[in-house]
Design a protein that fits this description.
- 2 copies of one chain form a homodimer.
- Chain A is 41% helix and 31% strand.
- By secondary structure, chain A is an alpha+beta fold.
- In chain A, strands 1-3-2 form a 3-stranded mixed beta sheet.
- At the A-B interface, strand 2, helix 3, helix 4, strand 3 and helix 5 of A face strand 2, helix 3, helix 4, strand 3 and helix 5 of B.
- Strand 2 of chain A pairs antiparallel with strand 2 (37-53) of chain B.
Chain lengths: 113, 113
């Protein structure tokens, strides 16, 4: 998608601001930024021009899937990127859903052994 | 991606408002909305939570591609959709780039024969 605006933040970077207690900071860093796996809130914003068939564009159920397929093929004579913005923000495990936390525990345990 | 906010507009629908000259409207419709192929400005906005490895998230060059790969697998224990918004707005051929217009002519001619 050409030039991509990119932004990633670990959780520790967010909570550092305004923290006066160093002990709390260190604890958070130890708990959250050390593991290789983490939960991220991701946002993708893409804008592009596309030559497409009418029946694809007006198919509400499949449009997103088709557009993502088109993007995965990259820029060509059918697709011209206009803007791309991707952000990933690490969240503390406890803010994730129970299902995700369970999966995270499972994955971390399986990589430890 | 679960519930997708979806919006599509043909060019004619945009220019109809405030038009007082019926002849112009008819001409535009005849030129722009009849062909099966058209150029669209598309916008995709996706927000989701993802379990991912740190080295993937902090790889600026590959993050977008990896996130799109993750989305194409659908929601599971690794990915939870938060919001999805997809919009497609038909633009008049003359607003497209020369490369796209050439491709459009080529495609329309090839489907006519």
């Amino acid at each position: 998608m050409g030039e991509v605006y990119w932004s990633c933040k670990p959780y520790a970077e967010r909570v550092d601001h305004g923290q006066s207690d160093d002990t709390v900071d260190n604890n958070l860093e130890g708990q959250i930024t050390e593991p290789e796996l983490a939960v991220y809130t991701c946002e993708i914003n893409l804008k592009f021009r596309l030559i497409e068939e009418r029946q694809v564009i007006y198919n509400r159920d499949q449009l997103l899937e088709r557009l993502l397929d088109a993007i995965s093929c990259g820029a060509d004579r059918y697709l011209e990127p206009i803007a791309a913005d991707v952000q990933a923000l690490e969240i503390p495990d406890l803010e994730a859903s129970p299902q995700m936390r369970r999966q995270l525990i499972l994955l971390r345990n399986s990589t430890d052994t």
